[in-house]
Amino acid sequence: MFGTIDTWLMWNLTGGVNGGLHITDVTNASRTMLMNINTLTWDPQLCKFFDVPMNILPEIRSSSEIYSYMGQGSLKGVPISGILGDQQAALVGQTCFKDGQAKNTYGTGCFLLYNTGSQPVISEHGLLTTVAYKLGKTTPAVYALEGSVAIAGAVVQWLKDNIGIIEKSADIEKLAASVQSTAGTYFVPAFSGLYAPYWQTDARGVICGLTQFTTKAHIARAALEAVCFQTKEILDAMNQDSGIPLSSLQVDGGMTANNLLMQLQADILAIPVVRPSMTETTALGAAMAAGMAVGVWSFDEKPITTDTFMPVLPLAERDQRFAKWKQAVQRSMHWESYANDENIKDNRF
User: Fold this and answer.
1) What residues form DSSP beta bridges with 148?
2) Using CA atoms, how far apart are residues 97 and 260, in angstroms rounded to an integer?
């Protein structure tokens, strides 16, 4: 038997070796690189390519239906009715049920999913095409474009642990807010390369535009802006691929507690940024999928939003700053391959 974490959990919750259910849902199956996202079935060619026997794979089901019931314990007999992958669950939790709606989860990295409707859109701008959800046995699957940022909250951790300019992660908001701008400082935190839309594994982190007047506050603000600029690059690619410009961005995750970050994001995107009252929407989305299957709630119910951040930065200034960010990104490119060039000698050793 083979499966993802949800498969293992379902198998154990429904009895394990005593008749446990061996299943997964379309969103988790789509992340194995073994499922055909058009037919929503295991693909014989992919399974052959990766040398995975098809008879060991779990049955693929929808994301919201009564699969079985708890097999033992105090919850014995309670229906199990929802399975969703991590980022897809956040998309559901943000009620992004219409074409052209998107959410961005700000954690260690950033993960932006954009609902493209019932037909998969194949990206021409460095994004991934994935299954967003399938809420019911007979309902059609919904697809999404996905872009990821490798370093988001991790850059704050780096500033705290490696550089020591803040004592705890929450301090970055106050420090960054103590200056009105980055004073021309740009920080590309490509510590392990750049993800979407560049996919450059040999890029490395750079801080550009330093002067003798640059302070730790400018670097802290540049780090927050880096998260926003990377999100904009993914969103621009999504707008080009889908042809449906985003009118607002739903946000969630731990970093969204930073009000300055959210305002910077609205300014750099030039669209409203909406933060719901429940920022941990991944867990909420999984609960919603389960609740829909048993009739606890419907698609029409929406979470209450607590804050909407409106853009206030003039577009000309936004465009100028984004152009400088792009220059900084270019300076981070191919750094590793350059450093490994045999013709370059390091005379320090």
Assistant:
1) 111
2) 28
pLDDT of residue 342: 54
> Dihedral of the CA atoms 135, 232, 110, 130 (nearest 10)?
30
Query: To which residue do tokens 């994004």 refer?
Result: 127
| C-alpha–C-alpha distance, residues 238 and 21, integer Å | 37
d(CA 126, CA 68) in angstroms, rounded, equals 39
CA angle 57, 97, 244 (to 5 degrees): 110
**Structure confidence at residue 243 as a pLDDT band (50, 70, 90):** confident
Token pair in block for residue 163: 């550089």
Residue 212: Cβ within 10 Å count: 4
b/e for 41-78, b at 16 or more Cβ within 10 A? bbbeeebeeeebeeeebbebbbbbbebbbebeeeeeee
Closest by CA position to 285, among listed 37, 34, 113:
113
Cβ–Cβ under 8 Å, residues 237 and 196: yes
Which phi and psi angles does 110 have, rounded to 5°?
-120, 145
- Non-local CB neighbours of 57 within 8 Å, separated by 6+ positions: 2, 3, 34, 42, 47
What is 135-151 written as a DSSP string? -SSSSPPEEEEEEEES-
Mind listing the pLDDT tens digit for each residue in 259-270? 999 999 999 999
